[in-house]
DNA sequence: TATTCAATGTTGCAATTGCAACATTTTACA
DNA sequence: TGTAAAATGTTGCAATTGCAACATTGAATA
């Protein structure tokens, strides 16, 4: 998986961070990252540590929207962070974050610097992946019924995995959040699919029991 | 609104298209664009004319996902075009399309060419907008009830417009598609909102009748 | 202007879904 | 290892929603 500083050497990375007038911040576990960033339009990079983008709806229900590891990126525009439902929370002590003013990236004129061009292209590719992921989720969520949402999700994951089984990347609770459906209603429908012999579930391993021409 | 060739002169645009080994295709009204593009991972640009990204669900219901005018972009990765539910249809005779292999963009080493860097940055900004739009739609669609989806949509549009009224950009039918809800159920809920005195609707003009602190 | 087709408004009904509540199992960690 | 918290499984019930069907209005066009 591509990372934002791929193909940029350590010395060039240092030069890049100076060129873009970046700032570094350190956060302790469970502290909010966005509340200390004053700027309007930024790209952030997790330098060390781990953080999560959390959404809290008006009932107080929280869900994890994204998990951010080292060299993962976030941003006001690309992560809905201007929406008050969203926040980024550091999940480890001494989580270090690099903050870049997005305008500095766009307005920088140092096109002759290879490391700068490499950075832009990495960003472009990461954005492409983000768009693709969001399209996938939209294609799932816009299905009418819970059954269709589940099957569309499985369809995509089976294709990615290239086999007739997958392992859930997280919990069923998180999957229900991702599919934007009620967890118990999802469990009910998964049971239906099992009873009809379409899938088998053993822990986090889900097996496809019919030929769907998906791979 | 930023366009893909902004700040690139006509002669430089010609050089750019040669550098990226682009191909031009012409389509007649109602013909499918994707079915004639053989390549795996491309970015397309509407050069002249008009096209639409159409989604057809398994019941045969069609919905317009995106409207593409001159200098608008699309792509296999960024527009779900590998998903067989999607297609791009030319909506005017002699709609011209520029096709660029995405790898040519990423692997191009001509960093010293200003027009190439300008192009990359324009692409980056267009991608940023796309991500933001998809986030907005996700934030709407993941609301549980039809009422909450409608109100979230209005909230965003009122904020953008900076006033207590908006004009629907298209039809109510298209809005129901966008919100991924049944049209008649949406009409029913809009009526409820009217009856409760929260909004007023006159043709495509929708007025907010309560103070929501949105602007 | 007449005609056709798309968009809108409305409603009853059945199906789906969310919600609450609870038992059971698994996981995290003190 | 013991304990608390989180995740999972289950179910009844009420509310929401999709669907079908139809009338009405509006827009496009020959």
Outline the structure in words.
The structure is a homodimer of 215-residue chains. With 215 residues, chain A is α+β, with helices and mostly antiparallel strands. Chain A is 38% helix and 24% strand. Chain A is built from 6 helices and 10 strands. Chain A has helices at 10-19, 102-107, 114-141, 146-161, 172-179, 183-195, and strands at residues 23-27, 42-48, 51-56, 62-68, 73-75, 86-90, 95-101, 165-167, 199-202, 205-208. In chain A, a hairpin with a 5-residue loop joins strand 3 and strand 4 (62-68). In chain A, helix 3 (114-141) packs antiparallel against helix 4. The longest helix of chain A has 28 residues, at 114-141. The mean pLDDT of chain A is 93. The A-B interface holds A 77-80, 83, 85, 102, 105-106, 111-112, 114, 117, 120-121, 123-125, 127-128, 130-132, 134-139, 141-142, 180 and B 77-80, 83, 85, 102, 105-106, 111-112, 114, 117, 120-121, 123-125, 127-128, 130-132, 134-139, 141-142, 180. Chain A binds a DNA duplex (30 and 30 nucleotides) through residues 144-146, 171-173, 181-185, 187-188, 191.
Short description:
Chain A is of the alpha+beta class. The first copy, chain A, has helices at 10-19, 102-107, 114-141, 146-161, 172-179, 183-195, and strands at 23-27, 42-48, 51-56, 62-68, 73-75, 86-90, 95-101, 165-167, 199-202, 205-208.
């Amino acid at each position: 998986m591509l990372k934002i500083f791929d193909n940029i050497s350590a010395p060039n990375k240092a030069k890049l961070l100076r060129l873009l007038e970046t700032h570094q911040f350190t956060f302790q576990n469970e502290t909010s990252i966005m509340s200390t960033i004053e700027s309007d339009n930024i790209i952030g990079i997790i330098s060390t540590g781990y953080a999560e983008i959390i959404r809290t709806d008006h009932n107080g229900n929280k869900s994890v929207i994204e998990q951010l590891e080292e060299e993962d990126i976030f941003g006001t525009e690309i992560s809905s962070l201007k929406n008050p439902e969203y926040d980024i929370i550091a999940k480890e002590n001494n989580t270090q974050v690099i903050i870049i003013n997005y305008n500095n990236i766009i307005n920088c004129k140092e096109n002759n610097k290879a490391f700068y061009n490499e950075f832009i292209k990495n960003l472009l590719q990461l954005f492409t992946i983000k768009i693709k992921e969001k399209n996938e989720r939209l294609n799932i969520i816009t299905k009418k019924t819970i059954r269709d949402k589940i099957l569309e999700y499985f369809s995509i994951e089976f294709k990615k995995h290239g086999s007739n089984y997958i392992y859930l990347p997280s919990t069923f609770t998180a999957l229900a959040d991702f599919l934007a459906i009620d967890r118990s209603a999802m469990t009910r429908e998964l049971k239906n699919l099992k009873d009809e012999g379409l899938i088998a579930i053993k822990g986090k391993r889900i097996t496809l029991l019919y030929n769907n021409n998906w791979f």
